[in-house]
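User: Second chain of the day. Same drill as before.
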Amino acid sequence: MEEKEKTPAQLRQEALLDDRKNGYDRLTPEDEAAMQSYCEDYKKFLDAAKTEREAVDEVVRLAQAKGFVPFTRGMSANPGDKFYRVNRGKAIMLAVIGDKPLADGVSIGAAHIDSPRLDLKPEPLYEDSEMAFLKTHYYGGIRKYQWVTIPLELHGVIVKKDGSTVKVAIGTCPGDPLFTVDDLLPHLGAEQSKKPLGEAIPGESLNILVGSRPFKDDDGSDRVKLAILDILNQKYGLVEADFISAELEAVPAFRASDIGFDRSLIGAYGQDDRVCAYASLAALLETERPAHTAVCMLADKEEIGSEGVSGMKSAAFDTFMSDLCDAQRVALKVCYEHSFCLSSDVTAAYDPNFASVYDKYNAARVNYGMGFCKYTGARGKSGASDASAEVVGFVRRTLDDAGVIWQMSELGAVDAGGGGTVAVYMAERDIDTLDAGVPVLSMHSPFETTGKLDCYMTYKGMKAVYQAH
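Assistant: Same format as last time:
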């Protein structure tokens, strides 16, 4: 059948309108196969990296398998060299040295590997009514009601008085016990139900139930607490005072899983921001001798303002970059002013169930690809780096040339709230920076949802940035 000639209006529509389409209408068979393989590896990463420390350990394992070696001050940095440096076990920086000198700048992918959770207080263990609990202080922006009556695991490290360190991961292996935070039964919850959603579960009530069996043959007080300490002492050599120098995190005991009859989505804890961290890492691991040096920065503490020695505000990144620059006798400021950073963090996916808090014309959509955010911040762009038109144009061109499916996005309606990323701290270093990442449903909840297509396209977009000329 002969194809009808397009009308002038149709031709003008094609030429002028930005016709956003679902990514599956544009996905090639080659990308389809690569997407499925990539997402299976990503799910394995999520299950192996429930905390920032575990994420660093897994990144080191994957990087070493690809030929990356630790970078120490004074080493040479030649094209094709692959380096990494761990910052205090909680953040990591990686680089593939390019053909062009560092004076021409570097291409940076920056993401964070911490996620909202429940941290144990320094003196957490107590007994009440012959039940043992651990007191917590929540980390990051959580909705507290979501953290009750779900299964929890306990991960982290204990540094004992003699300086030795014990790693803890309870709940990951078959047969391990799990933990939970209690909630009030509906039969007695009439007064609780009258409270606003954000006040129904006070932070001080997020106490983790860890036992109820008293220590045998003991008539003293706190018999259940003693029994718990006895178990911890036998397994880890722990005494109660060791909690003071421990970092223990309670995280949801959920495995990364396919979501939906069509398996088009991934559900898991910690996808903010390990979905972008893994994309940034996986893209770098597949980068061989780029034009510009490619750098991957995976930071800690973003969920509480990027503070501390392992956060993006720390000088640790500058020290790493300065050491690389010294290897080529290049001034750090010269490198920075010619560099580009993609701050790879998640954005809010439009949810029709809560449509009033989005601008549907500017919101990211599931399955529409990698989401650019020209600015984040709150309300009047407060706290945003607000990328320039030139920077957005460069990324548009780079991703289009690489066949990446992408979309523009905004983190909710103007007066609905907002959020921040590490972009502002990169921009403060005189580095052109743009936010871009995966749209997420149920962000900051114990079980977040992402689209497989968006996960893969973010990886593909990061790879294009690392390889850009």
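The two ends are 45 Å apart (CA to CA).

User: Great, on to the next one.
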